[in-house]
Specification:
There is one protein chain. A two-stranded antiparallel ribbon has the order 1-2. It is mainly alpha-helical and about 110 residues long. Helix content is about 45%, strand content about 5%. The longest helix has 22 residues, at about 5-25. The chain has three helices and two strands, in the order αααββ.
């Protein structure tokens, strides 16, 4: 291997080393946040819904209640759809206008 290639390889390894040190320096979430996230996840998992009984509405309502409690207005949270058993949850999150708008859906297009 030429001296120039060795120098470039060393520089690349050095950059990777420093980048990895920044990534490893990140800490995990505070315990209170982790507990809250676990509680929300546990609540959603324990709701009888989905494949077992064909109902998604209770989970959508529980998520909507959490979002309203977090400060989203009644006008920005919508639960509904064509089938009452399979409700959709739509939430409008107001930004500052500095960034381009986007839309996110958990459903994959096939």
């Amino acid at each position: 291997m030429s001296k120039l290639k060795k120098c470039h390889l060393f520089q690349l390894l050095l950059v990777l080393f420093f980048c990895s040190s920044f990534v490893s320096a990140q800490t995990t979430r505070p315990d209170a946040e982790r507990k809250r996230a676990r509680d929300i996840y546990k609540e959603f998992v324990e709701i009888q819904s989905g494949f077992t009984n064909g109902r998604h509405h209770p989970v959508a309502e529980a998520a909507a209640a959490r979002l309203r409690a977090a400060g989203f207005s009644e006008f920005d949270v919508f639960v509904g759809g064509a089938n009452p058993k399979k409700a959709n949850l739509v939430v409008r999150y107001h930004g500052t206008g500095a960034l381009k708008r986007f839309s996110s859906s958990p459903h994959r297009r096939r």
